[in-house]
Design brief:
- The protein has 298 residues and is an all-alpha fold.
- It has helices spanning 12-15, 18-42, 72-76, 91-110, 116-136, 141-162, 170-174, 183-213, 220-233, 235-260, 271-295.
- The longest helix has 31 residues, at 183-213.
- The chain starts with 11 loop residues before the first helix and ends with a helix.
- The model has no long low-confidence stretch (mean pLDDT 87).
């Protein structure tokens, strides 16, 4: 039986009223979004994300702290560098705003519990992967490999911090396939099953498509990303993530092909974008959808 430590901790909602906590989390999310912009820009170029200080990508001028305020500086500068007057990409405030909104949404879903930092770190990694894949069509190992390790650490820690039900798959596993296992072992077993379904199914689909059509359909970056996602989510939300990813990718792909007048139904799209979207949706609303679907068969 898992022993939750949440009862031994003070209720953070009593210390910080929810409206104020959401404002604080939103501001913190925008600051993290500013850091993610550095990751998105530098990581594909194999540059340090720590040094040197933020610089204008056009002229190389060092950006002062007052010109580096999330969203606000972009608006105050009129979307132009103070030094060279070159246009600043709208991606920068978009990432900051998106991260702020997602931090608030994840806080609303998870609550002010010890599990919240894990979910916020996970969603931050997803945001970075989505935008890097959109811009460079790669999913860096520097994010996916540590992400796999992070998922395992989370699967070990969270059941003892807030209880096994935080992970959608764990109660069912502990009452079924992995009944009698210690909670930590069952949680790691769920991570293994989720990773196998996530990364393994994508690898198998890519391998089969390449054998049948002679065309590479799935990059290893997508496979590694889904190993990370599957290990964190477990099997149920991983399947939902893939469904969301395939569905959204198909809709957008078909829309782009119609717009561009393509008739061969082949277009190279970075699938990591849609897997990231699917992962975020699964994190926020996945358990409710899974429970609703399972209820149709009871």
């Amino acid at each position: 039986m898992s022993v939750s430590l949440i009862a031994a901790l003070p209720d953070l909602n009593l210390l910080i009223p929810p409206p104020f906590s959401y404002i604080i989390i939103g501001v913190f999310g925008a600051i993290i979004g500013s850091f993610l912009n550095v990751v998105i820009h530098r990581l594909p170029l194999e540059e340090s994300i720590v040094f040197p200080n933020s610089r204008c990508p056009s002229c190389g001028a060092v950006i002062s702290f007052y010109d580096n305020l999330p969203v606000l500086s972009y608006l105050m500068l009129g979307a132009r560098c103070r030094s060279c007057k070159k246009h600043i990409s709208a991606r920068y405030p978009a990432v900051e705003l998106l991260t702020a909104v997602l931090f608030v949404a994840v806080t609303w879903r998870t609550g002010m519990t010890p599990a919240l930092p894990f979910d916020l770190i996970f969603v931050s990694a997803l945001v970075a992967l989505v935008f890097i894949d959109a811009e460079h069509m790669i999913l860096p190992n520097a994010i996916t490999y540590p992400g796999m390790v992070f998922a395992l650490v989370a699967r070990l820690a969270i059941p003892y911090l807030v209880g096994a039900p935080h992970f959608d798959d764990l109660p069912g596993l502990m009452n079924g396939l992995l009944a009698g296992w210690p909670v930590w072992a069952a949680s790691l077993g769920g991570a293994f099953i989720g990773a196998l379904i996530g990364g393994g199914s994508l690898w198998l689909m890519g391998w089969a498509w390449e054998k049948l059509r002679g065309v590479e359909a799935m990059g290893l970056g997508d496979v590694k990303m889904m190993f990370m996602v599957g290990a964190y989510f477990g099997w149920r939300l991983t399947i939902l993530t893939i469904f969301f990813g395939v569905f959204s990718g198909s809709l957008i792909g078909i829309g782009l092909m119609i717009r561009q007048g393509k008739k061969d139904m082949q277009m190279l799209l970075p699938f990591g974008i849609f897997l990231g979207i699917g992962s975020i949706l699964a994190l926020l609303i996945g358990p409710q959808i899974v429970e609703w679907y399972a209820g149709q068969f009871r």
